[in-house]
C-alpha cells in the first residue's frame, strides 16, 4: 500500500515537474482536498496562476484519475496493482521512440518562441523605462543636444548607437560591465545631475559634455 502511494508521488512528479504536496496531512494546502475526496479542487489549485486565475491544464482526465487514486489517503480505497493495470491510462497507447522525440522537439520550439517573445517584451519595457529616465532624472538640467535643432518644442527621438570597443584606446576610466548600456547611461546621467546642471548630450551616441565648478579654484571645468 505504501509503495502504491509512493508510485503516485513519483508519477505526479514525472508529469508535472513538481511535488503534489508538502506533507500528507490534513492541514497541507493541497493534500487536504485529497483527504476530503475533492480531487477536482486539488488539480485546479495546482494549475492556478500566481494571479489566482485558472492556468493551462495539460493533463488528461485519465492520468489525473489514476494519480488521485494512487494518492488516496484511505488505504482501503487506494488502487491495487490489478486496478492500476486495468485503468484506461495504463491500457492506453504507448508512443514510439520517434514520436517521443518529435513531441519533445515541438515542446522545445514552443518554449523557445515564448522565451524569445518574453525577452522582446522585457527589452521594450526596459527601453521605454530608460526613455522616461532619460528625461525625468535630468529634470531642471540644461540638456543641450549635439547636432539637433534648437527648437525646444521639437520632439527628439533618442536612437543612440554604441561605439565599438577599441582595446588600443588608452583610458584611465575603463571598466567592464554586463549591464545594458542604457542602464549604465542612466546611472551616469543621474550621477552628473548631482554636480552640475550644464550638460550637453549627443542624440546619436552615448556621449555627453558637461561643465562644473572646481571647488579649489572656482574655475569651470569642461569634461
Automatic annotation (TrEMBL):
Enzyme Commission numbers on file: 2.7.11.1
GO MF, one example: ATP binding
PROSITE patterns: PROTEIN_KINASE_DOM
SUPFAM superfamilies, A to Z: Protein kinase-like (PK-like)
InterPro entries listed in its UniProt record: Kinase-like_dom_sf, Prot_kinase_dom
Tagged with keyword DNA-binding: no
Keywords (A to Z) from UniProt: ATP-binding, Kinase, Nucleotide-binding, Serine/threonine-protein kinase, Signal, Transferase
Protein name according to UniProt: non-specific serine/threonine protein kinase
Lineage, top ranks: Eukaryota, Sar, Alveolata, Ciliophora, Intramacronucleata
